[in-house]
Amino acid sequence: MQAAVNLNPVVVLSANINKLCEYSMKAFSKRIFRILCLCLFAALVAVMLAKFDWSGRTTASLAGQELQGAGVFIGSDFPAITRSYPRILSRGNPGFSNIGNADPVLIENMQSLLCAGQKQNSIGHPLKNRVVCSVVFPGESAEEHWNQYVSELQNTETIPCTASNNLSNTWQIALLLDQVAAHVSPGQLKPVFDKLAASLEQCLGVLDGRSASLWHGRFSLGLEAFITALVLPVGEQTQKLKTRAYKHFLNSIEAIRLTEGWPSGYNYWINSRALTFLIAVDGFLNSVSGMEGLKRELVRIVRRVGLWHIYMTRPDNRIAAIADDGPRVDLKHQTRLVMEYIAKLTGESLYADYAEKIVALHGVQADYADFYWLLPFTSYNFNSYNDTRFGERTLRSAAGGLELQPLSDVFGSGAYNQVVIRSGWNHDATFLQFRAGSLFSHHQHYDAGHFSLFKRMPVFVDSSIYFGMQTDNRLYYSVRTVAKNGLLIHRSGEDVRPSRAFEESVAAGGQRLVFPTGSAITSVAHWRENQETGWHLKAGHLISKSDQAGVQRYQLDLTAAYDSIMFDSQGSGGKVRKVLRDISYLKGQDIVIIRDRVWPVESEYRVTAVFHTLAKPMSEIVAPHGLTMKIRGDGGVLARVDYWSNVALSLDLIGGEKGRYWVVDDNTMEGKNYDGGSKQKSWFDNPEWRTELSGYPAASGSFELLTVVQLHAPEIASRPDFRVKPEGPEIQVGDYSFRFEQ
């Protein structure tokens, strides 16, 4: 019989160290002996570090620090569950209990929608529909139906979790099992529970790794894991899985708590993130014992996310573009379901009113067929459902304007800094939004300080489009500052190829491209560590804000977004010392005033302010330092825009069908229209022209541009009087005088 051989590299290396050290004492001096032993000890430590799994230090082990820092008790293990099945989608919510008193026609439609799944109904997933049919209309199901559901769930193949493009269905199987479990014996459920536990283990392995990014796939993976964990039975082995899942749930909650909106774009949020977020919160509120502080915080976060939806909705009932966006900025398919669910979780009718508005706008397209099965569980009031989604009845109420105060808000204050300013909530309201925050995801664009303005139609707009991560249009135009209403600082000699996806180096003067094709942020703590080191995620921040006498002012510091004296990705000492943008809105006069100040490092670094419009503006040079433009809209002049600078300005109007995505490289001074992979779709604003105002810094070292946008009666508006005073510039617009501090 052979003796067992220990092949553990740490043990083998330790044994060899002892032998080598004994030999060294005989062959070398004490000094050399010490050096040799130190080197070998370092090798031992290196092997141990290589064998240790450090991934948890940036994910699960760090989760909850933000909440704890805010005084919210989170505990150290998976919380106690006091509720029997179903634990997640509660049958006791107002919407569910009201179904018994609902309109008979509505009940008939729901029965047809859900229970017809047994007749191979093409709407939605038959198993989901049939399970919910048995829950909502128990008279429709015989005892054998529940046994059949268990068998089908057991035979449903689980799809593994992945760090990106995750299509795992385990959480949906768990939701259905949660409903079925109350109607069958525990012994029948064991095979399905075992399958869920194995799938959860696989998903937690992905979450414990470093590939999934927090404001991307990691967010929903953490929520899906928690949903699955809530359904698993009590047991020593399942408790370990549940505790791991709970940590990742907290990690996801801390992410949305920080930003209060979705930096990766509304389309990704509403299609892939919002629903699992609300279901996970619902499960926690329904089934967890105690932990009232965390429950209150979860409801507060849900409320803020709901407000983000509402404030970001333009007067034309579309979400303002913010990143790699897509068709669902039109509010069809899932926004109504999500907002109704938010109303249920918060108990506030405001969100249900917004949901009803979407139904009035889009009728049957307000909902997505694959999620009809969730309607009985997510409704704030089942009777508020409009029968047009079933195509059989007319609208009960027209879309009306919401009344909500205040008329401005900042979402993700101190981090995301998404600012929205409105003059009101009717179709004629002025809508202004901008951001001055950090980077969170590769689906974000490099647009700190970019603003968009809407008055009856888009005035200044985001020109980006999105049809894939690595199209020429996205890499060389849409993800960059040149596609925004922002500032460019031109410097030759830059090599702009932040990843292997960039075959060309195109230096367009914009903000640093940090991770435009892939990110891997694992926790909020990891994000904080990389603000001013590592990735240098800090891109902008709010210096101050005020709202006095009908004037709202925001001062933004955008310096960190550019290659600056603080950090230069090119390793060349920076191209700017400071970049400031002040944005003010005068509600009574319906005027937007923007003050830009840039201090380039070198006098030959040209500064360009970019403004995108749907049509070619009419321009009039007033003086070397001034310019007037009129932006045309449907039926006349949409806005009058006056510019003043402390330096001589040059004007370029760029666009037309073959110049819509035109970019000039600062190294070669050659231009190209990057239209590869581009399409004009209705969910984008599709501006065709942009105005570029350029100049070199004055002798004082600064470039300054004042922009005054008059929206009220722009056809007869007069040119503002720009006066430069020692204490700062002053603008006289009609009877109103507006002053800036120096």
UniProtKB/TrEMBL annotation:
Q: Which residues cross the membrane?
A: 32-52
UniProt entry keywords in alphabetical sequence: Membrane, Transmembrane, Transmembrane helix
Gene3D superfamilies found in the cross-reference section: 2.70.98.70, Chondroitin AC/alginate lyase
Q: Which InterPro entries match?
A: Chondroitin_lyas
> What's the protein name?
Heparinase II/III-like protein
